[in-house]
Specification:
The structure holds two protein chains of two kinds. Chain A is about 45% helix and about 20% strand. By secondary structure, chain A is α+β, with helices and mostly antiparallel strands. In chain A, strand 12 (about 405-410) and strand 13 form a beta hairpin. Chain A is elongated and about 100 Å long. By secondary structure, chain B is α+β, with helices and mostly antiparallel strands. Chain B has one domain: Orthogonal Bundle (Arc Repressor Mutant, subunit A). Chain B has four helices and three strands; from the N terminus they run αβααββα. In chain B, a hairpin with a 2-residue loop joins strand 2 (about 60-65) and strand 3 (about 70-75). The termini of chain B are far apart. The chains are: A alpha+beta, B alpha+beta.
């Protein structure tokens, strides 16, 4: 039977009432708090009994103190004189216990207590949440801006959805903590001044647990969706970097405390180390990802390669849903058939297919198309609009009379078996490039400029790509 | 609206200052106040620690002896003045009460 155990206590820093009740329950169940650390709260087994706990805040203390200051020790002496023994401390938070049946509380003046809680919370906890909220607002704004400017790029990528969701959750968590704290503080200050009563603190323990579970579930889903690919390794590496950097920072700070370095030196070195490691590791991860992608792409192995004008070209034999042979009779077997999944998420999947003749046989036609499958019907219109904007775009701001002016022309969709069909017009001339909207997917298909489309070929496109 | 500091003294402030008429260790006040008030008033150890710090800052008490972490204090003239002001206020309250209800009403 284990005599020690470690719990991850999800409490708001200022939640005096919640922490006391939690520790009293633990003692009744035979577990006594031994110490608190960044890696959890440590408990030791005791005879189950009723023990009173008191969480008080000593604003002058710091998480970087090598040891309790004289003032803090004098404070502990006062408490010990009244029967309160120190169980553990975590920066400004001091946790005492008392086994007497009805001990005098450590804090008997609500105004002074609220003021001590406020000074301590402002010093550490609230500052961290303000920083987190600031970064969260920036990241969430960036996510929504990308969602508006490139909805398919965001919605088709599980990684983008995951990081967006994480930042939104972090923002929700920090906002809840900040608003929750200020609401309590305002009420507690008024009540203390009015009648000297202490308004019990109310943390957001369940909300914090829900947020953590949602993030873990989302991460698990992300890993499953990568299904053993290189991206899975990158996702693991990213998490390992975050955990590794956190562990290095915490351990270095603890080491400096053991070396009795002053709180000021410890804090400055820790901040510097955090910045260096965070940027350094992110940079290393980014460089290694880029170098892996450069050196390992394409993931697919070509069935053949050939040289042409000093360049090496690869030949693929992927199975395409629509080939030139489905559309016309052709006596040529040197084509390269390639299909790639550009991105895939719970909402959208994007595939790109090409069928190209060898470079020494360019007399034969080629075929390019992309298929955007929309898995959630409510996103269909958003995707259609984004694809239409991209289909006929006017980057560089040409004038309507310029040769590069692009526009999409709505055409009869019936021959294509589609719900809607658009054709590209470039510099006033219709191109053999079409955007076809089917029930669950949107196809963009590009034929050679001199291809004479027949109704049978349009039907073949609908049958092969429009399902 | 926030109450101006020390305009009135809380019971805990009042008795803490009262204990310091003569030199006294800070910690001993924890026992003296309940004894003085027949257990009616208790000062929490955290509250007393903060009050002593605040009284020192406000020069209402001064430190007389430091023995390791044990420190003793004594009331200053300013502290005495605050106590007298508080007594006068309480007396005035009592007089007002008597004026309305008469002396016999007090239990």
């Amino acid at each position: 039977m284990k005599n020690t155990r470690r719990n991850f206590a999800f409490f708001s820093f200022y939640d005096r009432t919640g922490i006391e009740a939690y520790l009293e329950r633990q003692a009744e169940n035979g577990w006594m708090l031994d110490k608190t650390s960044a890696f959890g709260w440590h408990f030791r087994r005791i005879e189950p009994k009723k023990i009173h706990f008191s969480v008080v805040y000593f604003a002058k203390a710091s998480a970087f103190d090598p040891e309790p200051s004289e003032a803090q020790l004098a404070f502990h002496d006062f408490c010990e004189h009244a029967g309160w023994k120190l169980a553990a401390s975590n920066a400004q938070m001091q946790i005492f216990y008392n086994e007497a049946p009805n001990p005098t509380p450590i804090e008997t003046d609500a105004t002074l207590e609220v003021s001590a809680i406020h000074a301590s919370t402002k010093k550490s906890h609230l500052t961290s949440y303000y920083l987190l909220a600031g970064v969260g607002i920036l990241q969430a704004a960036l996510f929504f801006w990308r969602l508006i400017s490139d909805p398919i790029g965001v919605l088709a990528s599980n990684a983008n959805l995951f990081s967006g969701m994480c930042w939104i959750l972090m923002l929700a968590l920090s906002a809840t903590e900040i608003v929750g704290y200020h609401t309590w503080h305002k009420r507690a200050k008024s009540a203390a001044e009015l009648d000297g009563s202490f308004v019990e603190t109310k943390g957001h323990r369940n909300f914090q647990i829900v947020i953590l579970c949602m993030m873990l579930l989302a991460f698990a889903f992300l890993l499953i969706s990568y299904g053993g690919s290189k991206m899975m390794l990158i996702a693991f590496a990213s998490v390992a970097v975050v955990l590794g950097v956190t562990a290095i920072i915490v351990c270095t700070s603890e080491l400096m405390k053991k070396m009795k370095l002053s709180a000021k030196i410890n804090r400055n070195i820790t901040i510097l180390l955090t910045l260096v490691l965070a940027f350094g590791f992110t940079g290393v991860l980014l460089i290694s990802v880029i170098s892996r992608i450069t050196s390992f792409l394409p993931e697919k192995v070509p069935v053949d390669t050939y040289e042409y004008n000093g360049w090496t070209f690869e030949v693929y034999r992927d199975e395409l849903p629509l080939t030139i042979e489905d559309l016309i009779e052709i006596d040529y077997d040197g084509y390269s058939y390639e299909i790639r999944t550009l991105d895939k998420s719970v909402f959208i999947e994007q595939k790109e297919a090409t069928q190209r003749p060898r470079k020494d046989a360019l007399v034969h036609p080629d075929l390019d198309y992309s298929i955007t499958t929309v898995k959630m019907p409510f996103m269909y219109e958003l995707c259609k609009k984004a694809l239409l904007d991209d289909f006929a775009h006017n980057y560089g701001h040409p004038e309507p009379e310029d040769d590069m002016w692009e526009e999409h022309i709505k055409i009869d969709a019936t021959p294509w078996g589609a719900n809607e069909a658009y054709q590209l017009k470039l510099g006033g001339e219709l191109q053999q490039r079409f955007l076809l909207c089917y029930d669950n997917c949107i196809v963009e298909i590009d034929f050679d400029w001199d291809w004479q489309l027949t109704s049978e070929q349009m039907t073949a496109v609908a049958e092969n790509l429009g399902k | 609206m926030a109450r101006e500091k020390y305009q009135t003294l809380t019971e805990q402030m009042f008795y803490t200052l009262l204990c310091l008429k003569d030199e006294c260790y800070g910690m001993d006040i924890l026992d003296r106040v309940p004894a003085m008030t027949n257990q009616r008033v208790n000062v929490g150890s955290g509250t007393l620690y903060t009050l002593l710090e605040q009284f020192l800052d406000a020069k209402m008490i001064r430190e007389t002896k430091v023995e390791g972490r044990r420190r003793s204090y004594i009331l200053t003239d300013k502290g005495r003045e605050m106590l007298e002001k508080e007594c006068a206020r309480i007396r005035a309250q009592l007089a007002d009460y008597h004026m309305i209800f008469g002396k016999e009403e007090i239990q």
